[in-house]
Amino acid sequence: MENTKKISATSELRQDLVTGEWVIVATGRGKRPDDFVAEDRVIDATAPDPFADPDASGQEEDVLIYRDQNGAWTTRVFPNKYPALTMTDTVEIIEEGPYVGVGGYGAHELVVTRDPHDHLARLDVPAVAEVIDAYQDRYLTHMRSRAIRYVSIFHNHGPKAGASLSHPHSQILALPVVPVVIQAELDATTRFFRKNKMSPFQVMLDHELSVRSRLVAENDDFVVFCPFASRTAMEMRIMPKQPQPYFERITDAKKVALAEVLQAALKALDRGLNNPDFNFFIHTAPCDGWDYPHYAWYIEIMPRLNKIAGFELATSLEIITVAPEDAAVFLRAQL
Amino acid sequence: MENTKKISATSELRQDLVTGEWVIVATGRGKRPDDFVAEDRVIDATAPDPFADPDASGQEEDVLIYRDQNGAWTTRVFPNKYPALTMTDTVEIIEEGPYVGVGGYGAHELVVTRDPHDHLARLDVPAVAEVIDAYQDRYLTHMRSRAIRYVSIFHNHGPKAGASLSHPHSQILALPVVPVVIQAELDATTRFFRKNKMSPFQVMLDHELSVRSRLVAENDDFVVFCPFASRTAMEMRIMPKQPQPYFERITDAKKVALAEVLQAALKALDRGLNNPDFNFFIHTAPCDGWDYPHYAWYIEIMPRLNKIAGFELATSLEIITVAPEDAAVFLRAQL
Description:
By secondary structure, chain A is an alpha+beta fold. Chain A folds into two domains: about 5-180, HIT-like (HIT family, subunit A, 2-Layer Sandwich); about 180-330, HIT-like (HIT family, subunit A). In chain A, about 25% of the residues lie in helices and about 25% in strands. In chain A, the strands form two sheets. Chain A has a ten-stranded antiparallel sheet with strand order 4-5-8-10-9-14-15-13-12-11, sandwiched between helices. Chain A has a five-stranded mixed sheet with strand order 1-6-7-2-3, with no helix packed on it. In chain A, a hairpin with a 6-residue loop joins strand 2 and strand 3. In chain A, helix 1 packs across helix 4. The longest helix of chain A is centred in the C-terminal third of the chain and has 21 residues, at about 250-270. The radius of gyration of chain A is 20 Å and the shape is globular. The termini of chain A are far apart. Mean pLDDT of chain A is about 90; it is low at about 1-10. Chains A and B meet through strand 3, strand 9, strand 10, helix 2 and helix 3 of A and strand 3, strand 9, strand 10, helix 2 and helix 3 of B. Strand 3 of chain A pairs parallel with strand 16 (about 320) of chain B.
């Protein structure tokens, strides 16, 4: 935080005075207020695919590219053409009366696989492992930026999950703040450990592997299960069998094992629910210089089968109509 | 919490081991896993309106009814035919290994206004005040139940906001737990007060009334503004000018004043954005027997102009593309 300035950047992060929640105000993305009239985010299947040939369609330059033995690209990573955050020379502190914010410092990148239709559920395991390798590679680059404190990696599939393009892609957002939900998980983990001398993640993992009623898939290194307190019907969580805080330290062998269960979990959804819209995202410890020994990284997969309505927004308390145990039976049957 | 039993109730509340977040698992609402295949919640405008004549369409019996001078009903409240929670004789504690839950004890009611099309933006102020009176009346009833700790009042308008029926209605959920987001607000308020000897809500209100750049509407008792850290484009917050913790203590005179600004805020959205989908909900102090002197109740209005995507789910950190100051200018211009 090198500089204090009262300015309006292209984008800025603003913090809620009460909750500490951050939002990104990205007016540079080109919307005016009345652009919202009757807007609906639908995917136009007839529109040209900007990721079919990223060079020709004027995407930003690649920061990472994978090629097959013939030299054809298979996976590539490039900055979002409409970034929510960008690397700037300094990190501006924004102040307005009692409020604080931070200039929109960070990075916003896309991880694109070649096939315009086959999403991760339908790619082979090595192709999924390549995507996970790309996540790790970019994570390791971003965490070296002094002002980056958290790197969020997520994937939106389908319009109900917020995807605006049908060509499969993941997104990486490198942030100068630690999100409140992550901080809340870290705090809760510390409290649980102080009380029980165990990580809550280890307790959960031991219990799920013991009762097995919510398991969907597993291999030697990873387990996929429907969480006891699932936030959406058919939610799945992927955890390493040996929990550890930092996703970015995953080994090459474990990347393949992770690809195997991620692909299986997405395939169960694809087959069982006829290619539903979904989000998945990685929760991992911040890269803010502190140590979080009792935290554990995991992947959350949330099918978007119901609308998020007023009750969920008001209370963050969701109503699910399929018990996680029934969801696990249903999903296992697809594999 | 009178009873401990390891059972699967029609519905149950389950708590996340790490975050403490609650979910309601309501399998009694009649969905099987494969009912989700290709499901999309759309409003069928040709379907008969079950709220046009609630008696004839077999709704539950009214718990509250308002009539005009001719005896015709104007607003009525009855239990949801498909309740997420119901009043039971005892509150069951559910245990499974390290996990805990609570039987689905509570209430789930609908507040229905008579006109099948005119929503709150288009009703007159006395009609909106009647709805607010119904909220308060039912709140006061539910808080007398010994096991009820929080009453959530919310309104979903339009399919993107999760409404499954087009006939305007609000919902009331009386809960045996305090939602984590409310607890987080209470904790943050206490921390802020200890540090600054002021309520963060009072600080926010003083600042907004002083800078005025984010104000949308006001009267002697209430102010409507776009929050500095808005979570959606065009979000609005309604606060009493004299903050106080408990919504249910609102006086008759203030109910009319609240109806005036609520109606104005919704009218600004309706006119400016051509009847967009939205949610609004009341945040208020729990009715769990504790005192929360520094908290302040408020109404949050969230237009649903963008999809909630993976980044928002992963981080609770949202990206908005209209600055709250620009939103306020736009919304003010509609009034």
